[in-house]
Amino acid sequence: MIANLYNKFGLYVKNKNESMRNLGIFIRKIFKFKQYMDRKSKLYPNQQKIPYINQERGVLTLPRAEYQAYFQTEPIISAAIDLKDKAENAGFQQSQKNHLITNLLPLDTIEDNSPFIDFALNDTILNMVSSYLGFIPLLSYIGVWYSPPVLKKYDSSQLFHCDQIDNKQVKVFINCTDVTDKDGPLTCLTADVSKSIRKKINYEWSDQRQMVSDHLIDQLVSNNNINVLTGEKGTVSMVDTSSCFHFGSRVKNGSKGRLMIVFQYISPYAFTLPFKTNQELPLKWIASHNRFSKIERLVLGHGS
User: Fold this and answer.
1) What is the CATH number of the domain that holds 115?
2) Does the structure show a pLDDT above 70 at 95?
C-alpha cells in the first residue's frame, strides 16, 4: 500500500508548480532517506582543478582542451557516429518526435564494457555531477540523438521548457559533430533566471503548460541571458534541464543535422521512479558485474 501511494503521489506532483514539486521531493526523500544518506556519505572530495557546475547557473560548457586531461570522448563519439550511419543506411526508424531521433542506442544493447558505461562512470564526470546534486546520483539514461534538418513549425522539445522527471538533475551532452547556430544547438537559460520566470508566470510542469513560447521568454529576459551551446566536435555541456528552461533541434536550412550523446543523472526519489527504484532502471543489470566499485554500482542502481 505504501509503495502504491508513493508511486501515485510522485506521478501527481511532477506536473504541478514549483512549490508542490518541492514538497513532493521532500516527502519522497523521507521514504528514501536511508538511500539518500548512503549516497550523500560517499560524495567525492572536491578536486580544485576540475571545473564545477555553478549552483546558480545550472549549466557548464567545456571545450575539449579543458577536459582532455580528465576524460576522453573519442571512443563514444566514434561509436555514436557508427550507430547513426548504420541507422541512416537502413532508413531511420523515427521516434515520436520527427525533429529528434532518440532511438539510435537501445539500452538493452549496452554491455558492461561499453565505452558509454566507461564514460558515464568516469571519476571526474561523477565528481562534477555529484558535487552539483549533493549526492551520488543514479544513471537513468544513455542515448544517442540525431536532429535531422526537418523544417516545420516548432513544437515539443523545440520550445522552451523544464523537464519533469526530477526537481534537479544533470544531463551531459557531447557534440559528435561541430554545432553552429544553424545546427539546432541546445539553448538554455540559467537556473536562477529560469526560477524567476517560473515565479512570474506561475509555471507548471503539466503537459498543457510545460512549453513556453519564445514571445513570452523575450518579454521577460534579454538576449544576454540566453545561452546558445554551440561548439566544436567533442564539446561537453552539463545542464540541469529540470531547473533551466531550454530547447533544441531547431535545425535550419543548409545544416546536415546535429548528432549528440546524452547521459542523464537523477536522484533516487525522482518523480517517475517507483518505490522499488531498481525495477525501472534500464542499466541495473550491469551493476552486478564485479569490476565495478561500490560507488559505480550505486550510480548504476544497485541498492536503490
Assistant:
1) 2.60.120.620
2) no
Query: Rounded distance, CA 273 to CA 165, Å?
Result: 9
Question: How many Å apart are CA 23 and CA 289, to the nearest integer?
Answer: 37
Grid cell of 259 as nine digits: 548528432
The pTM of this model reads 0.94
Q: Are strands 59-62 and 236-239 parallel, antiparallel or unpaired?
A: antiparallel
**Tally of structural domains, the chain:** 1
CA neighbor of 242 nearest in space, from 274, 272, 275: 272
- pLDDT of 204-258, one tens digit each? 999 889 999 999 999 999 877 899 999 999 999 999 999 999 999 998 988 999 9
- Dihedral Cα 299, 59, 143, 104, nearest 10 deg: -170
Range(s) of the domain holding residue 120: 2-300
Percent of the chain as helix, strand, coil, to the nearest 5: 40, 15, 45
Look at residue 88 in the predicted model and tell me its pLDDT. 81
